[in-house]
Structure formats: structure tokens, C-alpha cells
From TrEMBL:
It catalyses: sarcosine + O2 + H2O = formaldehyde + glycine + H2O2; sarcosine + (6S)-5,6,7,8-tetrahydrofolate + O2 = (6R)-5,10-methylene-5,6,7,8-tetrahydrofolate + glycine + H2O2. It is found in: Cytoplasm. This is Sarcosine oxidase subunit beta. It comes from Methylopila jiangsuensis. Its cofactor is FMN; FAD. Residues 37-81 form the Rhodanese domain. The gene is soxB_1. GO terms for cellular component: cytoplasm.
Length: 419
């Protein structure tokens, strides 16, 4: 890597010379006329793809084209939860691959992503729900993933603030994945950007892709707000804008875009040291290192490309929080924001070729794509570099909606806003 190495030694050296020697974390290059690979979208997935193309496959003549700024999309808007507690065989190996990459990410990127394996506990409130979580935990164990079913007595010391005897939603236990946790979302984008740039990848910000040039069924580059950029291969990783960008290549995707909101409270003293999800409504919570309670819930139930949400969902999320832990009613809400989710028809992602030769698609992350970032980049890079799907992402095919090989983790059918 050609970029400056971050280390205790470099911090000490810079502190002695007034911090005058730090270099920008990545360059601001002008776009070249053409590249071997152009990645559209400088979110977590696009940047991770560029990093692994360079590091794993030695493909360094790569540009990441971002219409805004690095970290301005969902990668900098999510609630930072990483986990691999999935049920279905199509999903568990992929998310566990991501989890393993998370565990070594900071060393790989030489960047502090504030990875914190504080665990996640999914609460259950009925006997039927306990059975469902036991099944999920067993499926995880069969794939070699850690999981543990906790009863109420085991939960009480970990989450003493829960309303265990709530008359409507009594807490009966929880499924824990101890290796899950949180990572600082925008540091992940910056870390990948810096590492990719250090291997020669051009990160082009403020450059919008406005069309694809396709000749004889094969992509030959992208039309952008800064002119045409040629490419032998193009990977699209634009999350909430997937349908709009794919339409520029004449593709209609099995994806709807919805808004998801997140919330952070004022900073408070240490309150909760794990991630916790409510099982009788859509509410989940963790605490940031600054002390803010970070929480979220359901998507706003209508299609939108606006990065902001509406009041009924705020009310719904706060009701969930109050039902689970009434004490948080005394905390002041500091900020809330929204991001656009690329909701697929079965709730699982797509990492595949498209009918246009040389054009690859990475999409359909719904509201779970942050935890997938390292594996998504790893597998997308593998597909682009070798032309073959990576084994852990082989099920994420674009044609599965036509062939019926769906990966419907929640079992709610083709109803994207329910996944
Ligand atoms: C409120 C909220 C909470 C969430 N919580 C979690 C969570 O706790 N755990 C979890 O796993 N996931 C979570 N997610 C989901 C996760 O953030 C996303 O699935 C994931 O970040 C999407 O991938 P990305 O990082 O590549 O997307 P993005 O960061 O959105 O990247 C896509 C990029 O493409 C760019 N782009 C779009 N169109 C163009 C164009 N025409 N030309 C050039 N560039 C373009 C955009 O500007 C954007 O920067 C959450 C999302 C939100 C909004």
C-alpha cells in the first residue's frame, strides 16, 4: 500500500511536529479516459469492491464513481449493526463470511472502524417465537456460527431495564449472537476508500453516472456529469438508487425503494452494552461510544427516493421503545434521519451479471446491507474479476425471481415493504 501507515509510532511522530505531516486519506484525481473496471456508487459496497479487486485480484486500474461524497449514502446513515444470525442456507454462509471479514477488517484496512463485538440479543415474547428463534439458533450452529438461547433469568442481569412483565408483551428470553455488534459506519467507508486509493484506485466524487454506453450488447463505459468514462467492465452498487441506475441500461429490477429512518438520543451514561431487538414490534437499540442511544424500527410504508422520513413512523418506533424499556421515555431525541433502501422482493440481495455483457449488479440490500459490506465487496469483486459467482454468494442471482428459487428469510412473500 502506498498510503501513509497509521500506527502508534506515526501518532507520536506527528504529535511532536504539530500534526503537520498527515496526508489526505485519499487523493482527488481527475477521471482517466478509461479503466479496466468502473464501480458506480461510492457507498460501502462499491468501495469494498474496489478494495478487494485491488487487494485480492490485483485489478488496480479501477475507478469508483460517486455522485455525492464518500459516506453520504446509506453507509453513513445506518444504525451500525453487524451480525450473521440468519436462518436460511442461502444467507448464513454469506453473512458469516462478512462477520469473519469484520473481525479482521481494521488490520486489513489499517484503519480504526471502531468494531465492537458487544453481541446482539433478539428478544422473544411467546412460546411460538421461542421455537422460531431456537430453530434459527440451531441453523446457525449447524453452519458453525455462534448462537445461544437465553431465558429470562439469564437476560435480567444483561438487560435490567426491560419491562419483563409487560402485560401485552412479556419478555420470555432472547437469542444471542455474542460475536455480533457494531462498527462505526462512516469510518468503514473512509477506511475502504483509503485502502483502495492506496492501491491505485481512483475515487471520483461529485460525478454522477447518467447513462451507460452499450455497443453490440456489451457495456463500453459510463456517461457521467464529467463526461464519458470508458470501462471494460462496470459494476453497479448504488443501493437505494438501483432501480433508477439500472433503468439507464434498460433493466427493470425486482426492487422497490423505501425510506428507513434512524434516531439518536442525547448522550447518557452507559445504559446498554449490547444490541437488543424487540420481538413484538419493530424496535432495536444500541448505545454509541459517545453515549447516544441509537435506535430504529420499520421502514416508512411508501415508495420514495427522499432521504427523509415521516412522523407516523417516528411515533411507531417510539411506542415500541416505550413498550420494551419505559425508562427511555425520559431521554431527549437529538436527531433523526432517513436513507433509501433497495428492498428486493424476497428480502435478500442480488450479486450477479446482468443481460448486458460486462455489466454487473450488486443490489437489493434492504435494510441489512451494512453488515454485509465486506462480504458483498469480496464476492462482487470475485464475480467481476473471475466472471464466476463466489460460492457463498452463488444463490444471489437476478433470475431467481423468475425461476422461483427465492431466499425469503422472513417468509412474507413478494411484499418488499415487509421484509
Ligand atoms: C436508517 C438506516 C439504518 C440502517 N441500519 C442498518 C444496520 O443496523 N445494519 C445493517 O446491516 N444495515 C443497515 N442499514 C442498511 C445499510 O446501510 C445499506 O443496506 C447499505 O449501506 C447499502 O450499501 P452501500 O453502503 O453501498 O449504500 P450507499 O452508501 O447508499 O451507497 C450507494 C452510493 O451510490 C451513489 N449513487 C447513486 N446513484 C448514483 C449515480 N447515478 N452515479 C453515481 N453514484 C450514485 C449514492 O450517492 C451512494 O453514495 C440501514 C440503513 C438505513 C438508511
Amino acid at each position: 500500500m502506498s498510503s501513509q501507515r497509521y500506527s502508534l509510532f506515526s501518532v507520536l511522530r506527528e504529535s511532536l511536529r504539530g500534526h503537520t505531516g498527515w496526508k489526505p486519506a485519499w487523493r482527488e484525481p481527475e477521471p482517466k479516459p478509461s479503466y479496466d473496471v468502473v464501480i458506480v456508487g461510492g457507498g460501502g459496497h462499491g468501495l469494498a469492491t474496489a478494495h478487494y479487486l485491488a487487494r485480492v485480484h490485483g485489478v488496480t486500474n479501477v475507478a469508483v464513481i460517486e455522485k455525492g461524497w464518500i459516506g453520504g449514502g446509506n453507509v453513513g446513515r445506518n444504525t451500525t449493526i453487524v451480525r450473521s444470525n440468519y436462518l436460511l442456507p442461502g444467507n448464513v454462509p454469506f453473512y458469516e463470511h462478512a462477520m469473519k471479514l469484520w473481525e479482521g477488517l481494521e488490520q486489513d484496512l489499517n484503519y480504526n472502524a471502531m468494531m465492537s463485538q458487544r453481541g446482539i440479543i433478539n428478544l422473544f415474547h411467546s412460546d411460538g417465537q421461542r421455537d422460531a428463534y431456537a430453530r434459527r439458533g440451531n441453523a446457525m450452529r449447524l453452519h458453525g456460527v455462534d448462537s445461544e438461547l437465553l431465558d429470562v433469568e439469564q437476560l435480567k442481569p444483561i438487560l435490567p431495564m426491560l419491562d419483563f412483565d409487560n402485560a401485552r408483551f412479556p419478555v420470555k428470553g432472547g437469542l444471542r449472537q455474542a460475536r455480533a455488534g457494531t462498527a462505526r459506519h462512516d469510518a468503514v467507508a473512509w477506511g475502504y476508500a483509503r485502502a483502495a486509493d492506496g492501491r491505485g484506485v481512483d475515487i471520483i466524487q461529485n460525478c454522477e453516472v447518467k447513462g451507460f454506453r452499450v455497443e453490440n450488447g456489451r457495456v463500453s463505459g459510463v456517461e457521467t456529469s464529467r463526461g464519458f468514462i470508458g470501462a471494460k467492465k462496470v459494476g453497479v452498487a448504488v443501493a437505494g438508487n438501483s432501480s433508477r441506475v439500472a433503468a439507464m441500461a434498460g433493466l427493470r429490477l425486482p426492487i422497490e425503494s423505501h425510506v428507513l429512518q434512524a434516531f439518536v438520543s442525547e448522550g447518557v451514561k452507559p445504559f446498554i452494552d449490547t444490541v437488543c431487538t424487540f420481538g413484538a414490534g419493530h424496535f432495536y437499540i444500541s448505545q454509541s461510544d459517545k453515549g447516544g442511544l441509537v435506535f430504529g424500527g420499520d421502514i416508512d410504508g411508501y415508495n420514495s427516493y427522499a432521504q427523509r422520513g415521516n412522523l407516523p413512523t417516528i411515533e411507531d418506533v417510539c411506542e415500541g421503545g416505550m413498550a420494551l424499556m419505559p425508562t427511555i421515555g425520559r431521554v431527549k431525541l437529538l436527531r433523526h434521519w432517513g436513507g433509501i433502501m433497495d428492498m428486493s422482493m424476497d428480502g435478500s440481495p442480488i450479486i450477479d451479471r446482468t443481460p448486458v455483457d460486462g455489466l454487473f449488479l450488486n443490489a437489493g440490500w434492504c435494510y441489512g446491507g451494512f453488515k454485509a459490506t465486506p462480504a458483498s465487496g469480496w464476492c462482487f469483486a470475485h464475480l467481476i474479476a473471475t466472471g464466476e459467482p463466489h460460492p457463498v454468494a452463488a444463490a444471489y442471482r437476478l433470475d431467481r425471481f423468475a425461476t422461483g428459487r427465492l431466499i425469503d428469510e422472513k417468509g412474507v412473500g413478494a411484499q418488499p415493504n415487509l421484509h
